[in-house]
């Protein structure tokens, strides 16, 4: 299934030097993503950064973070480069801009350009959160031929607006990261069992349709936040359910490894628009509106990434 790709949603020094290479070499993944929460988890809990942190003592916290993070990104980029050189649709690693800049388009653009220039790798994507300033940032970066990964996309409406810009202006590869499982974590406690574990997939499918309406060959839907939040679900539940053409799934290791034991042999057929609308109508009988939920989850996601970044910087 060449039109469905798997990426790995994890980054950590020891992993990059060992299991990451194994996943690439056996053809299991063709890209990877990072975010402030993943870096916070890796750097504060792994022993593999401590010697380097000690050597950087006295430098500003953000400078220490960038020294560590950019080293990891470059390592991932090098490992993925053969895939990129064979097919420039593959082989990307993503790095997110400082989450505290999300309200300032000018500073976000400057930071994105600086990071991309510093890394100087064609297979690095700059991650931009889908905040209010995102459309201006995305437009400027794509015109500058910088590959972008628009992250924290929850709303189909926003997904469509982003896809429109990328369809007109993307010069390089771009992905729109649609977050999935957080919908079910939010909504499932409020609805009967027959409606549970469906909101994330249905909302993601609607985002996929919106993106597909405007997409060009350079732009893909990337399903993110695809680790399950409930023990009642199979670890690879969201990967299997969203195995659509021209899509990517970036998954945590637990979900990824479960899927690789029993991968899909054919694409899933997305739900039809009428089925999506019927489900949304049923949710409204329980006073739940998916668009309102999307806005709430975006706000929470922006805050969570800031908190992780702040925790990481304060650890130095």
Automatic annotation (TrEMBL):
InterPro entries hit by this protein: Aldolase_TIM, TAL/FSA, Transaldolase_2, Transaldolase_AS
Protein function: Transaldolase is important for the balance of metabolites in the pentose-phosphate pathway.
GO terms for biological process, alphabetical: carbohydrate metabolic process; pentose-phosphate shunt
A matching Pfam family: TAL_FSA
Assigned EC number: 2.2.1.2
Main localization category: cytoplasm
Entries under CDD domains matching the protein: Transaldolase_like
Keywords: Cytoplasm, Pentose shunt, Schiff base, Transferase
Enzyme superclass (EC): transferase
Cell wall biogenesis/degradation in keyword set: no
Record field: catalytic activity: D-sedoheptulose 7-phosphate + D-glyceraldehyde 3-phosphate = D-erythrose 4-phosphate + beta-D-fructose 6-phosphate
KW Transferase (keyword) present: yes
Location of the protein in the cell: Cytoplasm
Name the UniProt record assigns to this protein: Transaldolase
HAMAP family to which the protein is assigned, alphabetical: Transaldolase_2 (MF_00493)
Active-site residue numbers: 127 (schiff-base intermediate with substrate)
């Amino acid at each position: 299934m060449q039109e469905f790709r798997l990426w790995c949603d994890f980054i950590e020094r020891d992993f990059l030097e060992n299991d990451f290479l194994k996943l690439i070499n056996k053809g299991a993944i063709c890209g990877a993503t990072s975010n402030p929460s993943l870096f916070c988890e890796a750097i504060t809990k792994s022993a593999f950064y401590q010697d380097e942190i000690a050597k950087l003592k006295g430098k500003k916290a953000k400078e220490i973070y960038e020294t560590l993070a950019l080293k990891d990104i470059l390592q991932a980029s090098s490992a993925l480069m053969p895939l990129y050189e064979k097919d420039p649709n593959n082989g990307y690693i993503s790095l997110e801009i400082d989450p505290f800049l999300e309200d300032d388009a000018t500073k976000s653009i400057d930071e994105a350009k600086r990071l991309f220039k510093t890394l100087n790798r064609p297979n690095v994507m700059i991650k931009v959160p889908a905040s209010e300033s995102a459309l201006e940032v995305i437009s400027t970066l794509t015109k500058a031929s910088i590959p972008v990964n628009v992250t924290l996309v929850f709303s189909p409406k926003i997904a469509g607006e982003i896809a429109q810009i990328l369809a007109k202006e993307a010069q390089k590869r771009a992905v729109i990261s649609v977050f999935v499982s957080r919908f079910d974590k939010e909504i499932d406690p409020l609805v009967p069992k027959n409606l549970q574990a469906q909101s994330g997939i249905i909302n993601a499918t609607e985002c996929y349709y919106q993106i597909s309406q405007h997409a060009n060959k350079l732009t893909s839907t990337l399903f993110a936040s695809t680790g399950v939040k409930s023990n009642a679900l199979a670890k690879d539940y969201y990967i299997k359910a969203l195995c659509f053409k021209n899509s990517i799934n970036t998954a945590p290791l637990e979900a990824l490894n479960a899927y690789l034991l029993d991968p899909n042999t054919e694409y899933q057929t997305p739900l039809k628009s009428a089925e999506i609308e019927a489900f949304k109508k049923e949710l409204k009988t329980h006073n739940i509106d998916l668009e309102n939920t999307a806005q709430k989850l975006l706000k929470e996601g922006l805050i969570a990434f800031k908190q992780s970044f702040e925790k990481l910087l304060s650890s130095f």
